[in-house]
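Q: How would the structure tokens look for this protein?
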Amino acid sequence: MHSHKQNFIFKPPKRKLPEHLSFLGNVLVVSLRLLPYLFILFICLIVCLLIIVAAGVVPHYASLKNVYVEAQLGQQHMLTAEAQVREYEFAKAETELQLAKESFVEAQKSLAVVDDSFLMKSSYLRNQYDVASDVLFIGEELANSVNGLCVIGARAMDAVSDKNMSFEKIDATTKGELLAVLISSMNELKDVRRNIGIVGEKLREINTKQPLFIFDKVVDPLQAKIPQIEKAFDASLSFLRALPWLTGYPEEKTYLFILENNREMRPAGGFIGTYGIFQVANAEIKNFYTDNSYNLDVKVKDTQKIPAPKPMEKYMAQPNWFFRDSNWWPDWPTSAEKIAWFYDQEGGTEKLDGVIAITPTVIEQLLGFLGEFEIGGLKFNQQNFWEQLQYQVEYGYYKQGIDAADRKDIIGDLSREMIKRLYSYPISQWPALIDTISKSVKEKHILIYFFDPLAQSVSVENGWAGEVKPNPGDYVMLVDANLAALKTDSVMARTMVYNLHENKDGAVLAETRVNYQNMGTFTWKTTRYRSYTRLYVPEGSQLISVEAGGKVYKPEDVDTVNEFGKTSYAVFFEVEPQTSKEVVWKYQLPNSIVEQIKNGEYQLLVQKQPGIEKMNLQLNLNFSTEVRDLGVEEQLNALDISKKAKKQESKQIVKQATVLRQDQEYSVWFNAKK
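A: Here is the predicted structure in token form.
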């Protein structure tokens, strides 16, 4: 049953029935889209072979013609299968894929006839023949692999019976059957993943055979897409491993739910204004209760004497520590454990399986998918959600005569309506929802922590964990903690400039400059910005100086801490409304970074704080060694990222500008010194 108390959301969007049907459809479609490239390649192949015919291969004309005909048939069957997959008609797609496979096999047989031609004595022509044979093999393997996915998809659809069926119309027994199908499909998916890996190896082998330029237009796109499919399979397999914990199958699970207000930043995502408990079994929410966090803290405010972190005591005049402030670390696993501990200390009785947090940004994105809602005479949509809700829980409730303890009940009313509409959506409309959820996870607006070690390892693999990541190379993470600055993060803009250079003594010096712009005014929700800010850098770095607005901090005013395998330098500063302030950290990187550069490689991981929506990022990397190559590793497909960093004419400087919405990794490789 759903409690009237602030039924916030959101586990329903994460119910995995539609997600995995969506996954199967998406992977199938991506895979099938590769086949038109194969068809073009077959045409190029025939043109080349016809030229060879003029040199004396007329006896093989019939075989070559059959290669062309069978390749055409295979391509047509794949296109038909693609259309059927889009309609979730997996059984029909299976038939088409089997026919496609047979066509590719026949094409290979016909091509093999040319193998004994005298022209194959030429190593160059032999290579081209091998390339053509490899591509036909790839076509066969892709058809076979996608067919394996269709078998799983067909079993899943047999359980659901109708792609237009909504979540609310699927009974508990059917949900259990579907979950059993998905979980039991892991071994089959592993087999498909191995086959896709073989395809990837074949593509890499093609490059060693000096293929004709006409092959490049086909092979290059294939080589770009196959790794994407491999990653999709890896993510799916990891997800399936976590399915029992996420869906409560076969055993019911209980989670502590946290709403972090990222307009009032705290290290792990935002101020904890709302908490809740939800229980899930067989992908159904059995109970969902949420409440104002202050209602939990007020019960122990006179008896709980847990010392607050020193910055809270100093800058907020708050000597004691409570549940609402327990997410003090940017490492979500660490904060999640402390949140659960405080919940237990303040009266929580449930045996928890994990802690899941979201920010209001998630709600806004969901409203973009679900549309507008009217609750208690107030309209909520993607554009006005936060402003409307914030005013209601700060002032509107009082004008309506609502008790302060119940002022956030409107969230429960909204959540019930969102869940109701969500459950009424047919499965065929859920892929867009899955995209919305995935975006929130990638940008660390959804954080998941499991107490079970196996489940937690899966959370880390999938990028759900929000942990401070281990990294052997260079590292930067900016972490703000809004201390008594209302909701001023809603009007703050941040720009980080990271400068690096090697001095004449061989030391590597770093400078991180962060400009904070307060675009607000003095209102009921915004004021001067007050932040206790930590900069995490490689462990063993040596601080040179920190300054804010031109004022240099004394060493005793900089808090230096080693944690999470990093070193952090923390300072407190204020930014008045309609002004900006630049905070600058200068430090020397440890010798391990120096040695890596000497060994020909430099790596930089920039992590985004959970809850921050975006931050401008500029890199200026000045090396003493000539740069050979650059790489930008998109952490979970980061948005707004330029694909290639710029290498300057000096060949020793790398510059990059982007909007950081999620973790980003950079690699630089150097030429050997002469």
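Residues 127 and 210 are 7 Å apart (CA to CA).

The first helix runs from residue 16 to 32.

Upvote if useful.
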